[in-house]
Structures are given as C-alpha cells and as structure tokens.
Amino acid sequence: MSFSQFASPISSSSSAFYGSSNLNTRTERKMSTLGRSSRICKCVATPSEKTAYTTNVTRNANMAKLQAGYLFPEIARRRTAHMQKYPDAKVISLGIGDTTEPIPEVITSAMAMKATALSTLEGYSGYGAEQGEKRLRTAIASTYYHDLGIDESDIFVSDGAKCDISRLQFLFGSNVKIAVQDPSYPVYVDTGVIMGQTGLYQKDVEKYGNIQYMRCTPENGFFPDLSTVSRADVIFFCSPNNPTGSAATREQLTELVQFAKDNGSIIVYDSAYAMFISDDSPRSIFEIPGAKEVAIETSSFSKYAGFTGVRLGWTVVPKELLFSDGFPVAKDFNRIVCTCFNGASNIAQAGALACLSPEGFKAMQDMISFYKENAHIIMDTFTSLGFDVFGGKNAPYAWVHFPGRSSWEVFAEILEKSHLVTTPGSGFGPAGDGFIRVSAFCHRGNVLEASKRLKELYK
Amino acid sequence: MSFSQFASPISSSSSAFYGSSNLNTRTERKMSTLGRSSRICKCVATPSEKTAYTTNVTRNANMAKLQAGYLFPEIARRRTAHMQKYPDAKVISLGIGDTTEPIPEVITSAMAMKATALSTLEGYSGYGAEQGEKRLRTAIASTYYHDLGIDESDIFVSDGAKCDISRLQFLFGSNVKIAVQDPSYPVYVDTGVIMGQTGLYQKDVEKYGNIQYMRCTPENGFFPDLSTVSRADVIFFCSPNNPTGSAATREQLTELVQFAKDNGSIIVYDSAYAMFISDDSPRSIFEIPGAKEVAIETSSFSKYAGFTGVRLGWTVVPKELLFSDGFPVAKDFNRIVCTCFNGASNIAQAGALACLSPEGFKAMQDMISFYKENAHIIMDTFTSLGFDVFGGKNAPYAWVHFPGRSSWEVFAEILEKSHLVTTPGSGFGPAGDGFIRVSAFCHRGNVLEASKRLKELYK
Predict the structure, then answer these.
(1) Coil, strand, or helix at residue B453?
(2) Are B100 and A124 in contact (CB < 8 Å)?
(3) pTM: predicted TM-score of the whole model, two decimal places
(4) I need a surface site. Which of A103, B115, B312, B323 has the fewest CB within 10 A?
C-alpha cells in the first residue's frame, strides 16, 4: 500500500513543500492541512471521533508528575499565540537562548567538506566510536583541560549537553537524591522527575518532593549557603549559571568541591557558558584541586559556535570518579553511551574539530564577544531604568529583578506591550520568581530596538 | 590555568593530528600516547596508583545487571586484538552492520549546501523543533506512510532508531514488562535492563528475569508461536529482523496486532530494514488495520542512505495510541523528546530531506539493491557449502546455521582462520546460538574475497 509510492515517493501534496521553502509557518500549516485531508483514508479517526480502544499499559507515573510543558516549548506556544493576535507586530525574541549569528565560515566549510567527502570512497565513514572521534576528543582535552589532568579518554563527545544530562540520569537511576541550584536550567529537575528520583510536585512551595533546591538569590550572591543544604547524591551545578548569569568564584567552587567530598556526592557541573567568563572565575570545575574525584562536567559548542542546530557537546567523566563500591563512573557512562547512543553526527564532529583549530577558536571568541556586547547593552538598558540587574558580565544572560511581581506577569506585560519575548524567572525554579531572564542571543539591531522599546515601556 | 591556553588552543601534541588525517588508527594511538605522556601533570593518577577516595553514591543496580559489554563494541575489541596478533592480515568485516558505500551526491550536496548556508544570515538556523523540521516530518509521512493515516504530527525525527529506543524506554519507565524476539537487536533488552524493567541475568538460561523471550527459529519460520507467549506491556518487534533477516508476512503481522490488541500491549515495531524487502511483506506495521491503536514504529536512514555516521532516524507515535487511562502516548513521548533531546542535527535533516526527493529516493534504492546483491553472493556461498542459510532476501543479513556449535566458537574460527569478522548469533539472544550473522554491508571486492576465503575454510 504505502510502498507502491516508493518509486515516486513525493505526492503532490508534499511536493509543494519542496518548492516553497520560504513559506512561513502559518502558510505551511494551512497547506499541510489541505494536503492531508485530500489524501486521508477512511480508517483515520478524525479529531471529533472518539477512539474507544485503550491499551492496558499503565502510563508511567513519573511522567504524570511533570508540570505543564517543558518551559521553552511553553514560551514558544505563547509567542505563537501572540503573533496570531498581533500578526503585524515585529516580535523580537530575547527568550529561549537561541543563537542568532551565522557560524564562521572556517567552521561551516569544514562541515561542508566532510559532507562532500562522504560521497567518496576515501572520505566515507559509517558508525564512528560512540564516544566520539579520537582526534576530536584529544582536541577538546587539550583545548579546555590542558594541564588539568583530563585526557582524551575522559571525554565523551555527544549531540549536546541536554542529551547528556538525560543520559547521566539514565546512568544514576531512580534511587539517587539530586540537588539543584534554584533557579537553574529546568532539564536537571525534569529528567530527575522522569527518572523517578523525586516525589510529587508540591503546589504550595512549587517544588518536587525529594529534590534539594539550593536557593541562589542576590542576598547570597547567587551561591547557595551550603551550611543549610543537606546531602544529595548528585549536585547539578551550572556556572556561569543559566538563568542568573552568575559565575561561581574559585573560592566558592573550592567550597562546593569540599562540600561534595564531605558528603560523598557527585557534582554534575554544566559549563556550557564557560567561554563567556570575563573575570578570573574558573572555566572548568577541574581547575579545583580534587574535583576529579567528585565531578562530571558537561559542555557544548551550542553557545560558543552557534551550534544550537548543528548539535555537538561533550561530557567529561574522570576515571578518578568512583561509586561507593569503587566502580568507576566512567565505565558505566561508557556503557550507557554505547547502548543508548550512536555517536554525534560525523559532520557536526568535523565542525567541532574546526572550532578548535586556531582560526576556529578565534572566530568563536569573536562571536562570544559580540554576544557579550549585546549583554552589555541589555544590562545598561535595565540599569538606566532603575532595575537591579545581575549576570551579563560572565554570561549571555541578564537577570532582571521585578520585586514583588510574578515572573509570568512581567513576561506577559513585556510581550503584550513591547512585543518582546523574555523568559519568566519562575520557569527556572521558585527562587526565580520576580525575575526575568533576558538573553543576549540576538542580532544587534534587535537588541537596540528592544532597548528602545523597554525604555519606552518602563520610562 | 587551562584557559590561558584559549588564545592559542592547539598544543604541539594535538596539532600533529590536524596534519595527519590519513593516519591509521594504530599510528594515531601511538602518537597520542606519546603526546599525552609529554604533557601529563603530576595530579593524574597513573593506572597503577590506587585512588583512595570513593563517593558515597551507590552504583545503579540495574547497570550492574548488564552482562559484559554491549555486543558490537565487544566484537570491535576482538577484531582489534586479532589485528594486533596478525598485523599483516587483510581483515574483512561482515560484522557490525556498518554501511560501506559512499552516500549519493544528491544527498551529500544538500548537506554541504546546508552547512555552507549556516554561515549566512538567511541560511542560519539555531534550535529547531525538537520533533524535527516540519517539511521533513511531512516528507517522511507522505513517502513512507501515504494512505496509512499517519500524518506529519505523528512523526518524531531523531538522531537514530537506537537513540529513540532508549527514549521510548525512558517514556515507559521501570514498571513495564517487555517482550522481545529471540534473537533480536540487543538494544531492546539492554535498555530495558538499564531502565530497571528486568530481573537479574540468569546464567543457566542466558536470559534476564521478567523479559518474555519470543523464540524465533527455523522451526517456526522465525515468527514466534504467540500461543505460548504470555502478556507483556511492550513488545519489541523488528521486521525484517536483525539478525535473522526474516520479514514477517502480512498474516503474521495481523496476528501480532491482534495479539497486542487482545492483551492491551504496545508494539514497538523496528522497521529500520523495511526498504530491503523484496516480496510483498508489509513495510510498515501501520499497513495492518488497527495497528495505530497498538503500535509505535521506529526507523532510520542509516541503512537506506549510509547515514550510520550522519545520524538521522524517526519514530511514529500515532495519536490513536493510548495508555490504559486514555492518555495519549504521543503526548508523553513529545514531552520526553522536548526534555531529553534537542532535535537532530539540522545538516543531517537537510540530508534526509534530500533522501526523500525523487532523485535521492532513487539513489537510496540503488544503494539498497547493491547491498542486496552482496547478500545474494553471501547466501550462495554458504548454500553451496551445504549450510542452511536464512534471511538475505528481504534484509542485508544472512543468518547461517552451524548446528551443535557455539556462535562465539564459530565466530572465533572464521576470524582466526579466514580473517573475517562476523557476528555471533548468541549475541542477539539465546535462540541465536548456533548461528552467525553475516552482514552484506561491504564493498563488492570484499564480499567476493570473503566468499573465496569461506569456500576455502569450509570446502
């Protein structure tokens, strides 16, 4: 039935898409609906039809614990609704932290060359090592961990830090207790919930049971008061932090490593923004003596080279890191990577290798400088309007305080009145309420326009 | 410390790799070892040094249940050992099912163009939809599921079927009971073990507790006797099967769907080899009426377009598929995909779209025909030597019977005497013992040479 289509696979309804790559989403949807209904067959249930049959498979109770949608798709939905309400508005996104600037040619040309080479006998390669190409692992080790006692065998190349976090949760299993900075990147908590590490969501405190939320606010300089934190097995720690933009100092990270050591905890250190650091804060947890015995580090080219769509990250699991029975964590992580993953795209890996060439590295640094200038403009804007603004210096995020107001209310106000998409701070944890995160990943013209609109809104 | 290296990131030891992309693995390893030892710092524990510190984090007991390494890395290790023993032997791999032929230019040129476009303002894109680009989802739906009532919103584009299987396990959680064909692709079982769905490994029967192994042998035509199979929540079913190469008929799949319906089970149907089918066996489970209420389908371009290294697959979760409480499975899978994944590489997606253009599709079919001719040569070889050989017709795998012998023993014999890497059937499940899987993913010259050596060995 369907395979009779194989010889001429593109039906008239779908071929329309090939000639219309510039259609906007709404037009595409309209066309797709038309195309679909014209080829629909009788056995398809239409939305109004009730399907009587249910399987006997019980829904995973952990999935049911999750609250609403994952933050960023939720924001995308609200943005889309806003655009439908104001079809002529020029909506500017300072929201989901998505890179906007083209990837430097030294990097894309390496990827194009790799793609082209895949059509040659000499250049073709199939399955690569699940852990990544040895040359790339070596280049990551020598670029980011030179002199830190991390070598290529400690590096696991991946399709991004987010994906590695879920693989790390698969590794840890359901019987660990996790701690997270509050606020922080929602993936740590959400994957923990899915894995079954947590209790139910407690609406009154806006927290899941059995997670240690380590409060990070202006009062404590966005570093948790560890004397109030009880032991967790796994401490997720992001520095420079997403969303607050704060980078932990060497003293603070030394304290964190000591805290982990005292408790026998494992730190999962997310350094995806490390290259944005301007001061002498550590770029890697492994700059702290003894960290290799208590820490994993995950990072990514997403924000360094505009690889949010290309997908390439890595995770460092030092061979010195051991479970309580002495079993090396890296051995289990290797098994996870080999069983649940098949390596990052070889083309993306070629791009990453080019990122670490002298020219590529310089190009990444220039791009980071560009985004930091954006951050500077955003910081200046809010400061000039009398707001307390944090972050921005060591990170592409400004963390703006609206004391006494709900984050979603501020988010809605800025979207409604200025057509600007930000991110509500409470989406990162209860301590984020009263804040919004403003992303510096934006074209310069849009940052300047956003600044103008904000000055109009909050004058 | 490490970041002082950022301005000039490539140390002399790693820069050697940039100028030596054609070095073979053994040479690379030697250079890397030299390079590493020259920059090693004092804080690194050498293998002989004991690290006293262990964390207090308990190793995930499910990880400890796993037996030895994942099959294919284990084979790679044995192959490497063999090459060290016989450095001058010309080892030919008919082993891990890795594609060998260059990707057609119509496909790689689309990827090169996408990569190049990422350096332009108009062509740059950051985060894509986690579910994949709408145009690609639409093209997959219309190419493979035309008239089957599957539309673009049912398709989740991914970085490969293996990765999707682990995400499906994350979705199902630890409280489901799974059934697998015995033998079958080891990832179903191994991810189930990691997820905590199973009991311990039982050495005597070579099975994990709490998994239904559905025996598939020549006696039952490689389709399980469902009257002997007790209920499972999730039935993993691969057709054409890896490793046996058998494709289930329409009658058999109708029986399977009815079995799932009677039990309220969910079928996870792996159709990664569907395009290899020569006869009128169904290419998709959704060709069977009612399957949308009981089945998920996962597939991939890996074996169709040589994308084993490029990484691009998809999973179909029909909106008609419901958990026992009526909750749509697709909604939970969407949440998993959004939380644990960030979309397939945009470059790989551009390649997949080209695969589904008329020229790309024709090129894929030609490549598949080439591999099927290889399979024919392999089948003929073993048949002429008097072996019982299965598969081959609808799949790129021949499944060769060595009655009364252990698979690993046969594997070792063929490797030792003929320098050919195959895959031991017992690696796919206990019912695979006594068989080896011979892959048709091979250059033609190598297949002919392998045929010659096998005729010498078993004459």
Answers:
(1) helix
(2) yes
(3) 0.89
(4) B323
